[in-house]
Amino acid sequence: IDFKIITNNGTHESMKMLIDLKNIFARQLPKMPKEYIVRLVFDRNHESMCIIKDNTKVIGGICYRKYPTQRFAEIAFLAITATLQVKGYGTRLMNKFKEHIQKQDVEYLLTYADNYAIGYFRKQGFYQEIKMQPDRWKGFIKDYDGGTLMECYVHPIIDYGN
Ligand code: ACO
Is residue 27 assigned to a domain? Predict the structure, then answer.
C-alpha cells in the first residue's frame, strides 16, 4: 500500500489516477452530482491523496483544498472502493493525510460529512463543534445543505504516522 499526493499536472500517470479516484467518488457518493466531482478532482486548487495498491491500482482517496493564509484545509470527498471498506484503509488514509497536512502548516481540517459518514469522522477526531473563529473560514468554503460541518484540530507535534 502506498499513499501518493496527486495533482492535475497534465501527466498521463496523474490523469489516470485522478480518473480512477473520480470513479470511486462517483460510485461511493451517489448524491453528489458527477460533474461537480469531476470539476473539483481536476481543479488546480485541489489535490488528492490516493491509496494505491500493487503500485498502480487506486483503491480510495481524499480530495481536498488547502487555504494556506487561513491555515485550514477542506476535505471535499473521501471514499474507499466498496469491496475494501471497513478494513482499516479509511483510518490509515486519514492518518497519512494528517501527517502530510501537518507539514504544510495546516492547523484545522473542515469537512461536510454525509450523515452516513459522521461516525467515521468522529472516530478520526472530527467534531461538530467548530473551534475556528467564523471569520477564518466563512466565505472561504461554500455552505452545503446535504451535510454536517465537522472540524478536526491537527496538533502541530502529534506523530500521526505512528
Ligand atoms: N458509519 C459509522 N462508522 C463507520 C462508517 C460509517 N459510515 N464507516 C466506517 N466506520 C467505522 C468502522 O466501523 C471503523 O470503526 P472501528 O475503528 O471502531 O472498527 C472506523 O469507522 C474506521 O473504519 P475503516 O475501515 O478505517 O473505514 P473505511 O476504510 O471503510 O473508510 C469511509 C471509511 C471512507 C467512510 C468508507 O466507508 C467509504 O468510502 N464510504 C462510502 C463513501 C463515504 O461515505 N464517504 C464519506 C462521505 S463525506 C465526504 O466525502 C466529505
Answer: yes
Report the length, in residues, of the chain: 162
In a domain, 160, yes or no: no
Give the CATH number, domain containing residue 117. Answer: 3.40.630.30
Predicted-complex ipTM score: 0.91
* Ordered alpha helix ranges (H), the chain: 12-28, 34-42, 89-103, 118-123, 134-137
Query: What is the 89 CA–ligand 1 centroid distance (Å)?
Result: 9
82-120 residue pLDDT tens: 999 999 999 999 999 999 999 999 999 999 999 889 999
**CA dihedral in degrees (22, 73, 157, 59; nearest 10)?**
-10
What is the CA(111)–ligand 1 centre distance, in A? 14
- 158 domain residue, yes or no: no
Count the domains in the chain.
1
Range of the domain at 80: 2-153
Does residue 22 contact residue 37 with C-beta atoms inside 8 Å? yes
Closest CA to ligand 1's atom 10: 120
